[in-house]
Prior knowledge:
alpha/beta, Rossmann fold, six-stranded parallel β-sheet, 16 helices, 39% helix
Amino acid sequence: MMPANDLGLPTRMVPIARALADRGHEVAVFNPAPAPAKLIADAGLRNLPMPAWPLPVPKYGIDLAALSSAWDVEHMLGIMYADAEYARADTAFHMDLVGDFNPDVVVDSFGLPTCLAARILRIPLASVLQGNFHPASDGFLWWQGGRPAGLPSAVAAINQVAEEHRIAPVARCVDVLAGDLSLIVGTPETDPLPAGADVTYVGPIIWQRSNATLPPWFTALRRDRPVIWVYSGTPRYGGAPTPFDSIVVIRAAIAALRDMPAHVVLTTGYQEVPREFGALPSNFRHAAFLPAGATAERSDLMVHHGGHGSVMTGLSAGRPAVMIPTYTERESNARRVVALGAGEMVRPTDGPDREKHIDAPEFGAKVRRVLSEPGYRRSAERIRASMGDFGGVQQAADRIERLAGG
């Protein structure tokens, strides 16, 4: 996994790794970032250490604002890997990482240098993707029509690396991500792709230990009030605001829900609540981490940032959502949920202070609407039932075993 300090990819990848390990395979994962490392340790999995030489840092800097507004994955990769020197160094790093472990199969989720490393080393590659990351998708901004011309591209840089390692050039960088096997986390309804796409839908994959339980304070919450689960994801990715921060979700929840007759359970993915908030309102409870499936089942509504893992968690429990998507990929996911009738979305705006802001009255009104109108819950329950047609983590493990020749 890309070593970002959030739980989006780990909650998708760790269940697959655990299932393969439970079948007797030797399995290792790589994500040394603090929050993912806690989840990996909780799963009892081997987490490969950071190699002796660190991940390369792009000398040219990455335009985070442009990255957060990317049209699709090809655009995103064009922003990240347009410099051949950085693409070469990042690929070499992952070649060393993969080569040292020497696996029979690499399982990745949209990490271009890992996918390139597997291709160069001639190791079968299984990609675990959401629909809007697959090469056949219509991108993140699918509701806006055709893809604009002239978007940044990394094809020239990646093909320099390909030529140096004597592998075939690429027409699009995103094609590398599909690998030899493409597993789509979701269903044709939640993650639509063209009929001819060479993919296997596996339904939702969510991490939760088999013996996971909710804490006593959660199970003791009064039943005469709705339970709203607010999942912020990573509030801050650095000391200064970035377009990817989800602190706006906490701000919106406190502003709109503090006086609501509801139990508000805030989780932050092994992160602390930023100090600027001080004491939380009396109807709030914070836990750094709770078992996702059990928490969703006990909740009446999810509030989150539109991340694909959060969407899958809510829908797999038949729970509607109100989403505050913080960048285009998350807005893509959120709009799919809205289109399915299983939630509402409030789009934040960027302020002059580089922080995202929300219309708190609009957000509060949508929370009350989703809680009071049963159609949202019925739609979410219908989607939950349809997800039972897919094999989930066990199907993913089956297909990966076959690819590995096991």
